Amino acid sequence: MSFSLIDASQVLERNLSVFQNVKCLIVNNPGDQLSAALDTVGATSHSFSYHFGYHQQHCQQLPESHCHFGTEVPEHWGQFDAVILYWPKEKPLATLLLEQLLQCCHDSAVIYCVGGNKEGIKSAAAVAKKIGLRSNKLDAARHCSLYALPLASLANKPASKPLSSYQKQFAIEWRDHVIELVTLPGVFSANHLDAGTELLIAEVNDELGSKTLDFGCGCGVVSTVMAKQNSQRQVYAVDVNAFALLATELTLAANQLSAMVYPVTGVNDISQRQLTAIVTNPPFHQGVKTHYQVTEDLIAKAPQLLVSKGQLLLVANRFLQYPDLLEKAFTSTNRRSETSKFVVYQSRSC
């Protein structure tokens, strides 16, 4: 039987025998047919995803009770015999995940780390060593590598760490206000305010209206500024990443503000209509690859979500080819501000 598998999963398929009749936790698999492949060797699979799109894919393949989207593995799932971790490119996030996964494994369990050679997997041995785990390279194929981290190699299993211990907090000045930002590993611009967002929030004003949405909210700086600038404004914040959504909630709370925060994979998941503005520093990287489709879909469909004369306020690198798409989708587009690297576009429809 053949399965539709990404390259990293094909390496796992070559080693299915190690998953014979185990209770297995799959972490952030992008929704291919790995769970079906594991079924063939009697494995019982659970899926934990911090990417909402991946979670939605797994909900179509596994019982909903075996799928979870969030920042922590559900305690009621109990202990696992094996964990498969699709390695993230950010080392701090990899460390967080490994330390968390230790807590949901039997003492004799093995954590299997898999990923592309150009997507960070080569750091797995070093990250594992820092938390006391030995690593064995099991296989390599299709420009991917597979490592086994046996928990039996741990001298002592470390105590559980609260997610708050991974938080970082810093402050920025915005006009006459001090804004506190809370970030987590894996969240865009996790240690500082990036130049694009800094340019974007300078354009937040009353023109945005009373019902605004922050698309790709990251740590919540745009949402927080919009709520701060107008306390009567309804603010919505969306992102695909569970750690970003949590960081946004923490940032809003740190500034004694509120917004509706929820996950999306793209514009089609946005539940609001009659928005007065959509404000975004949109993502164009997925892992280490450049990916424009999410932003292109947002530009094309944003007019359907906006009130008449509502606006899309978007910051982007100068080299990205968004002006033509904006002019096609909207009645008018102008450049509100720009630097040598970034441009803030304002687009409106009649």
TrEMBL record:
Q: Which Gene3D superfamilies match?
A: Vaccinia Virus protein VP39 (3.40.50.150)
Q: Where in the cell is it found?
A: Cytoplasm
Q: Is the keyword Methyltransferase assigned to this protein?
A: yes
Statement: the UniProt record of this protein carries the keyword Iron: no
From which domain of life does this come?
A: Bacteria
Question: So what does this thing catalyse?
Answer: guanosine(1207) in 16S rRNA + S-adenosyl-L-methionine = N(2)-methylguanosine(1207) in 16S rRNA + S-adenosyl-L-homocysteine + H(+)
Known function? Specifically methylates the guanine in position 1207 of 16S rRNA in the 30S particle.
Q: What is this protein called?
A: Ribosomal RNA small subunit methyltransferase C
Species this chain originates from: Neiella litorisoli
Gene it is expressed from: rsmC
